[in-house]
Amino acid sequence: MTHVQAHDIDAFVGMIEAFRDLQATLCLVAPPHEAAAEMTAAIEDLTDRLRHFEVAEGQRTARELGMQGLGHPILVPYESTDTSDDSMLGSVTFGFAHMGSTDTVHGGVITLLFDDVLGMFVSRKGQPDSRTAFLKVDYRSATPVCRELRVTATIDSIEGRKTFVRGALLDGDVVCAEARALFVRLPSGRS
Q: Which residues form the Thioesterase domain (predicted)?
């Protein structure tokens, strides 16, 4: 593990975006054996090169990026457009890498989005260092890929270390999914 003292956030985000583009492209192709083998070797080589820059948990660039799913290659990036003390409005566009079938988003990816959005919102506006205790998602209609959607988060109540929150994913006036969750703040000294 090598210690890296300085890093460029914009360059890191660019690398994550390039990786997401690779994931989306992989969902759309059927390369012949020789080309697939050659590209697999190139990806393995790149992975080995990246391992040279591994650092401890507190030094990772992804941790600095926080809310909006930008710093983690499997999280769905979203934009928070309006935030108050107990609610958030944002936007998200799912890509081909998030597709389940027939130009609709895989249900597990929707759950992943809610866990990230609601968890980050609770940590920022409710209680820092909270973890998901439960998350229930109700799928209301098919969620389209490649279209900007609205995402909301609302804190319903805070009871001691517990924060109860809900969220929604909307395509215009159509509710695609709704979520209810409980996040629990870790006791002091735990992470």
A: 104-173
